[in-house]
Write a structure and sequence with these properties.
Elements: E1 4-9, H1 16-21, E2 25-28, E3 31-34, E4 37-40, H2 46-56, E5 61-63, H3 67-79, E6 83-88, H4 96-107, E7 112-116, H5 121-136, H6 141-153, E8 155-160, H7 165-169, H8 175-183, E9 186-193, E10 196-204, H9 206-218, E11 223-230, H10 234-247, E12 253-257, H11 260-266, E13 271-277
Parallel strand pairs: 1-2, 1-6, 6-7, 11-12
Antiparallel strand pairs: 3-4, 3-5, 8-9, 8-13, 9-10, 11-13
Helix pairs in contact: 3-4, 5-6
């Protein structure tokens, strides 16, 4: 029987349990590179990433999937008569969406829809869940893609990095900004604006930056879910999650450690919020 299959990239951090429950869910990995070696993201944890990078004295890099990586997933599905919806991390953060679209054009653009999530991680997981539910209840490919695009427009992403070093080495901020930010203990509150990293505010100290992020969340009254993402700081993330649950007792809350691709660019100690507003 023809099915609609859902493909996401590895920054979504799909669990093995979720993959096991859905035969029509697939993951295409980004890669982490340290020196001359590379690993699919799912085979490199953040702890391993930071330890290996430190021991080798080399800052890690990342690479997006090639069109061929997507084609190897698309071709057997299309040959079997299925359709495919692809959900990628924000095009403002990576060229992954371009690789997916190029692959779709080469295989069967009519039966493969590519959606730029405008976010990553928890936001992509929630969109994948929505797509799987719609596919299971008989919605067509166009309806699913339109709904996902709408969810993308209602999804917001904010984060506080603990260090500016990774953002600087990854080319996201200049050297002077990184140096003075470190000396003055400036902690930027960043967000995704049209899928690209932008500065929402700059404050002194990490605790103030996190409080400012929660204050920004409080401006929203009706939320479909709230996600707390973190990198190597689970205890702190759990504390923030408890605070948010008190503010929004009836709203689903999801916690997840972000993957090593985001860890490469954002560094240890990151805390972020991804949430979807209700219309």
């Amino acid at each position: 029987m023809a099915l609609i299959h859902v493909v996401v990239d590895s920054t979504a951090q799909v669990s093995a349990e979720m993959l096991g429950r859905h035969d029509n869910l697939h993951v295409v990995p980004l890669k982490v590179i340290i020196g001359s070696q590379e690993w699919p993201e799912n085979l490199m944890s953040n702890s391993e990433l930071f330890a290996l990078s430190k021991s080798k004295g080399v800052h890690p890099k990342t690479s997006q999937p090639s069109p061929g990586d997507f084609i190897s997933v698309f071709e057997p599905l299309i040959a079997a008569g299925h359709q495919v919806v692809v959900i990628t991390l924000s095009g403002g953060l990576s060229g992954t969406v371009g690789s997916a679209q190029a692959a779709a054009n080469m295989v069967d653009a009519k039966n493969i829809s590519v959606v730029d999530s405008g976010t990553t991680a928890i936001g992509m997981i929630q969109m994948a869940k929505a797509a799987l539910e719609m596919a299971a209840t008989g919605h067509n490919l166009d309806d699913i893609a339109r709904h996902l695009a709408r969810l993308a427009s209602l999804t917001y992403t904010m984060f506080v990095p603990n260090t500016l070093e990774n953002l600087h080495k990854g080319g996201r901020i200049g050297g002077a900004a990184a140096m003075f930010g470190t000396i003055l203990q400036i902690k930027p509150l960043l967000y995704l604006a049209e899928g690209k990293v932008a500065v929402l505010d700059k404050v002194r100290t990490r605790s103030r930056a996190v409080s400012r992020m929660v204050d920004e969340l409080k401006r929203q009254e009706r939320l479909a879910y709230i996600g707390v993402g973190y990198i190597n700081c689970q205890d702190e993330a759990e504390g923030i999650a408890r605070q948010i649950m008190e503010l929004y007792p009836g709203t689903p809350l999801v916690m997840s450690e972000l993957g090593s691709v985001l860890g490469t660019h954002l560094g240890p100690g990151l805390i972020g919020l991804i949430y979807q507003v209700k219309n």
